[in-house]
Specification:
- This protein has 2 domains: 177 residues, no CATH class; 69 residues, no CATH class.
- Helix content is 24%, strand content 33%.
- The strands form 3 sheets. Strands 1, 4, 8, 9 and 10 form a 5-stranded mixed beta sheet that branches. A 5-stranded antiparallel beta sheet has the order 2-3-7-6-5.
- A hairpin with a 2-residue loop joins β6 and β7.
Length: 273
C-alpha cells in the first residue's frame, strides 16, 4: 500500500557530474570569475537516479515563481557548495530553506529550456578572493573538473510500494547547489558545443587586490589594529619581503604584520600565476 506525506525536503544528488560550457572568463581590476552554461535537470526518463519521478511542468512552474523571478532580477539567486545536509546530526527545515551567504559559490543568472524536457542555466562563479568557495569553484573548473548542479526544494511527493517516489506537484524551489554527483544522468556537457577558450592566467593586479581585501577582512590582527581608523581599502599594500601590510587611514598610513598563515597564502597565490 502506498504511503503519502504532504511535503518532503528534496535535495537531488547521486551520481555523475555535468561538464559546463565555458562562455567566458572575466578578469579585471575588480572581479575575476567564470560565466558558463550547464544542464540543471532533465526529464527524458520516467525516473532519475534517485528513483524519483519528476515532470518538466513542475520545475517550470517552480522556476517561474515570483520569489525566484525576483531573485534572478536582482542578480541574487545564489547556490552553495553542496546541499546543507550534515553527515551527522539533524538537519532543520529552516536551514534547507535558507541560502547561507558564507557558503555560496555561484549565482544563477537565468534559466532556459533547450527542449521541453531539459532546464539549463547560465551561471557565474562568485569572486570571493583566495580561499573562498566561489574562487575554489572557479579554479576547479579551470583545472578541468566537470561541475554538476542539484536541485534543493520542498515538494509534495509519494513513496510507492516498489521504492520509487512520485513528485505529486510543484512546490518551492530554493536553488541549485554545486555538487559532485547529480541525480539526473542527462546533465552532461553537450559535446556538440565546443568548450570556448578560457584565459587561465589571472592578472597580477586583480589577484593582489583580491588578496589584500581577503587579508583585511580575515586577519584578526589587522582588523584589531585598524578598528575605528576608517581604513581606505584600496590603499592596502602587502610587502612580501617583510610580511607587512600598510593601509592608509584618516590618521595616516598604518603598518601591521598579519598572521603567518597569510604569508603562506601569498606564496601559494604566486605559484598559481
Amino acid at each position: 500500500m502506498n504511503t503519502y506525506n504532504d511535503y518532503y525536503i528534496v535535495c537531488e544528488q547521486t551520481s555523475d557530474p555535468a561538464k559546463p560550457e565555458i562562455v567566458e572568463e572575466v578578469s579585471n581590476s575588480k572581479l575575476d570569475f567564470l560565466r558558463f552554461k550547464a544542464c540543471l535537470q532533465a526529464f527524458y526518463k520516467p525516473l532519475n537516479r534517485n528513483r524519483r519521478s519528476w515532470k518538466a511542468s513542475q520545475i517550470r512552474t517552480m522556476s517561474e515563481a515570483a520569489p525566484i523571478r525576483e531573485l534572478i532580477q536582482r542578480k541574487s539567486l545564489f547556490g552553495e557548495a553542496g546541499h546543507p545536509v550534515p553527515s551527522t546530526g539533524q538537519v532543520t527545515l529552516e536551514r534547507i530553506l535558507t541560502i547561507d551567504p558564507l557558503r555560496t559559490t555561484h549565482r544563477i543568472n537565468s534559466f532556459y529550456w533547450p527542449s521541453d524536457n531539459q532546464i539549463n542555466g547560465e551561471i557565474e562563479t562568485l569572486d570571493d578572493g583566495p580561499g573562498g568557495p566561489g574562487n575554489k569553484m572557479k579554479r576547479t573548473i579551470m583545472q578541468g573538473a566537470e561541475v554538476a548542479f542539484s536541485l534543493r526544494s520542498l515538494v509534495p511527493q509519494r513513496k510507492n510500494a516498489d521504492g520509487t517516489v512520485t513528485v505529486l506537484g510543484p512546490g518551492r524551489m530554493v536553488t541549485y547547489d554545486w555538487v559532485i554527483l547529480p541525480s539526473h544522468e542527462e546533465a552532461y556537457q553537450d559535446t556538440s558545443i565546443p568548450v570556448k577558450e578560457v584565459v587561465t592566467a589571472p592578472k597580477f593586479a586583480a589577484v593582489m587586490e583580491s588578496f589584500n581585501h581577503f587579508v583585511l577582512n580575515s586577519s584578526d590582527k589587522v582588523r584589531s589594529v585598524l578598528d575605528g581608523l576608517d581604513p581606505a581599502l584600496e590603499s592596502a599594500i602587502y610587502d612580501e619581503k617583510s610580511g607587512m601590510m600598510s593601509v592608509g587611514t584618516a590618521a595616516g598610513r598604518v603598518f601591521v604584520r598579519p598572521e603567518t598563515k597569510y604569508a603562506n597564502e601569498y606564496i601559494d597565490l604566486l605559484k598559481g600565476l
